[in-house]
Design goal:
Belongs to the cytochrome b5 family. MAPR subfamily. Keywords: Membrane, Transmembrane, Transmembrane helix. By secondary structure, the protein is α+β, with helices and mostly antiparallel strands. It has two domains: about 40 residues; about 170 residues, Cytochrome b5-like heme/steroid binding domain (Flavocytochrome B2, Chain A, domain 1), CATH 3.10.120. It has a four-stranded mixed beta sheet with strand order 1-4-3-2. A hairpin with a 2-residue loop joins strand 2 and strand 3. It is elongated and about 120 Å long. It starts with a helix and ends in a 10-residue tail after the last helix. It binds protoporphyrin IX containing FE. Protoporphyrin IX containing FE binds next to helix 4.
């Protein structure tokens, strides 16, 4: 056999082998590609799972790894976003009274200084039989400051500053001249009004900033509603807590 023929045959044989091994390599690469793709997907899913657990743990302050916290922050509640986009609701006092827990399917609403909050997530306090059930379905602003939960369930704040005014006592008060006493009383009145204002603001801020509750709207009242009511007297326990003026020589 001629040398050239032998080389040609060998070349032919080599070519077949090369094709086969290339085919095998391509199949191997495909296998490798699909298994590495599966591995990549698994890695991403594992990362997302671990990240989700970590985020849930941080947001819930260590309460849950799986978003199962009792009091989710507002931004995790669909109803919070719904209320945000729907805009505020306006309810008359009569309409507001339907949100006191007795009407099935309705949330629990309370109002402070005319602003309505959804306090449904405080069911054990505001639901029927709860220790603060009397606050729902109404604006009881006066009671938040006076602490008189029976007499003061009204939005009428008129005259409440009296709870912070000292009781007049002729003997103690005789140490001031008439003009001085007038000025002192004006100052006491301004301070008392400020205390009532900040007492009410405390609760408005409490409900506004609480992660459990959400602001939903405002109480709609007819014009001149306040003038139609009789000014409430200072409730008994607030009256009893009032003290005499601090004597001049002890101030
Ligand atoms: C002006 C007086 C007071 C007002 C306006 C008031 C109001 C409130 C309100 C609105 C809540 C619910 C807070 C929430 O939604 O998370 C609450 C809770 C609570 N208050 Fe008062 N409070 C007053 C005085 C008191 C006093 C004197 C005590 C103690 C003797 C007290 C004990 C409690 C307790 C224990 C809770 C938690 C209730 C629970 O988790 O079930 N409060 N208070």
């Amino acid at each position: 056999m001629a040398d050239s023929e032998l080389r040609q045959r060998k070349a032919k044989g080599d070519d077949g082998q090369t094709k086969q091994s290339t085919k095998r390599r391509t199949t191997d690469e495909e296998d490798y590609d699909s298994s590495s793709l599966r591995l990549d997907i698994l890695r991403v899913l594992t990362f997302l799972f671990v990240a989700s657990c970590g985020l849930s743990y941080v947001i819930s302050s260590g309460e849950s790894f799986f978003w199962g916290m009792q009091n989710k922050p507002n931004y995790l509640k669909p109803e919070w976003w719904k209320a945000k986009f729907a805009g505020p609701i306006y309810l008359t006092p009569d309409e507001l009274s339907q949100y006191n827990g007795y009407e099935k399917g309705k949330p629990l609403y309370l109002a402070v200084n005319g602003t309505i909050f959804d306090v449904s997530s405080g069911l054990h306090m505001y639901g029927i039989g709860g220790s603060y059930h009397f606050f729902v379905g109404r604006d009881a602003s006066r009671a938040y400051v006076s602490g008189c939960f029976e007499e003061d369930l009204t939005p009428d704040m008129r005259g409440l500053e009296e709870m912070y005014l000292p009781i007049d006592d002729p003997e103690i008060d005789s140490k001031w001249t008439t003009a001085e006493m007038k000025q002192l009383k004006e100052q006491e009145l301004a301070e008392a009004k400020e205390r009532v204002h900040s007492g009410l603001k405390h609760w408005v801020d409490f409900f506004t900033n609480s992660p459990k509750y959400q602001k939903v709207g405002y109480v709609k009242r007819e014009e001149g509603w306040l003038e139609k009511l009789t000014v409430p007297p200072l409730c008994k326990s607030a009256q009893e807590k009032r003290k005499k003026r601090v004597p001049r020589d002890q101030q």
